[in-house]
Automatic annotation (TrEMBL):
It comes from Algoriphagus limi. It comes from the Bacteria. Residues 91-332 form the DAHP synthetase I/KDSA domain. NCBIfam families: DAHP_synth_Bsub, PRK08673.1, PRK12595.1. Pfam families: DAHP_synth_1. Keywords: Transferase. InterPro entries: Aldolase_TIM, Class-I_DAHP_synthase, DAHP1/KDSA, DAHP_syn_2. PANTHER family: PHOSPHO-2-DEHYDRO-3-DEOXYHEPTONATE ALDOLASE. This is Bifunctional 3-deoxy-7-phosphoheptulonate synthase/chorismate mutase. Gene3D superfamilies: Aldolase class I, Phospho-2-dehydro-3-deoxyheptonate aldolase, domain 1.
Length: 339
């Protein structure tokens, strides 16, 4: 169960409440986020909700049977809206477009992608400065200096920055320069990292693990939420299956399922999802039709020269066309009475 507390609950009232909840056989955890105070009760015993609901200091009480609690739609039917400032949102009812290279490579490259975003009304740019690479000999990113450079150029153009954080020690140094911390597929269950991201007040986008289930993705989000940060976005980026014809298997099923289970916005990443440039647009549009609140895809002036993931990266002409199609399909989607 989730017990939402009144902001002015006294410590005596809280103690009394915890005692009562423990008394019915539920284990309690106190959660304090930037937006509210909660007590999470874990247990299975049947009980009369009125016994607790009438106690002082309680705002609301919800029975949530899911393993994850705070990210569940069962207690918060209203979708979560992520406000990045300057009129940029990621939320239900809008279509977020995030594009940019796999890796940030140079000042010249940053300027070209920023211009491409501005020209196409795209307000969020992706790019890695800390790159998780399968081989230690591959390009591993420009690091914090690259991020600073990127920030100085992007912020001037009103472009928000989405970039991966790989370890806890990077959170603080990155903080002034990021708008959305991306947790990569390889770190989807790095619980130390998730705990620490619970302490920041900037948005966090969690990618699904390489072999992660939908439930595991939601539990990862629960870590950040229960750590204090409610500004969360979920990202479906494909999972590893027996199929070898594509880089990953983009699990489009996950999109409506995540939207139904959670109040958090859901983004689709067709680039890593299929890994083949020619088919990225199809999978992006399929993701939009499946109900995604946004698309994140890789683009580069000359994909063949990209330092990483060139094979799945669109050039600017392709990206401009895709952005227009995404908006068109999203407008169409609104006319369907999908669940
Ligand atoms: C990326 O976004 O470039 C990336 C490394 O993604 P993922 O963690 O999904 O593999
Ligand atoms: Mn990539």
């Amino acid at each position: 169960m989730i017990i939402q507390l009144q902001p002015d609950i006294s410590s005596k009232q809280k103690e009394n409440l915890i005692e009562k909840v423990n008394g019915i056989g539920y284990k309690t955890t106190e959660v304090k986020t930037q937006l509210g105070d909660y007590i999470i009760g874990i247990g299975k015993k049947e009980f009369d909700i009125r016994k607790i609901g009438q106690l002082d200091g309680i705002r609301d009480i919800h029975i949530v049977s899911d393993e994850y609690k705070l990210v569940s739609k069962k207690w918060k039917a209203k979708p979560t809206s992520i406000d990045l400032g300057d009129g940029v949102f990621i939320k239900d009812g809008e279509m977020a477009i995030i594009t940019g290279p796999c890796s940030i490579e140079s000042e010249e490259q940053i300027r070209k992608v920023v211009d491409h975003c501005v020209e196409n009304g795209i307000r969020m740019m992706r790019g890695g400065v800390f790159k998780p690479r399968t081989s230690p000999y591959a390009f591993r990113g420009m690091g914090i200096e690259g991020l600073k450079l990127w920030h100085s150029i992007a912020s001037e153009a009103g472009i928000k920055i989405v970039t991966e954080v790989m370890q806890t020690s990077q959170i603080e140094e990155m903080y002034p320069y990021v708008d959305i911390y991306q947790v990569g597929a390889r770190n989807s269950q790095n619980f130390n990292l998730l705990d620490e991201l619970g302490k920041v007040d900037k948005a966090v986008m969690i990618k699904r693990g390489i072999s992660g289930t939908i439930e595991e993705l939601l539990q990862s989000a629960e870590y950040v939420f229960s750590g204090g940060n409610e500004k969360l976005i979920l990202c479906e980026r494909g999972i590893r299956t027996y199929e070898k014809a594509s880089r990953n298997t983009l699990d489009l099923n996950a999109i409506p399922i995540l939207k139904a289970k959670s109040h958090l916005p859901v983004i689709v990443d067709p680039s890593h999802g299929i890994g083949i440039r020619a088919y990225v647009p199809q999978m992006a549009l399929a993701g939009v039709m499946a109900g995604a609140d946004g698309v994140i895809y890789e683009s580069h002036e000359i994909p063949e020269k990209a330092y990483s993931d060139g094979q799945q990266t669109l050039d600017f002409a392709q990206s401009a066309r895709l952005a227009a199609w995404i908006r068109e399909i999203f407008d169409k989607r609104k006319t369907f009475d999908l669940l």
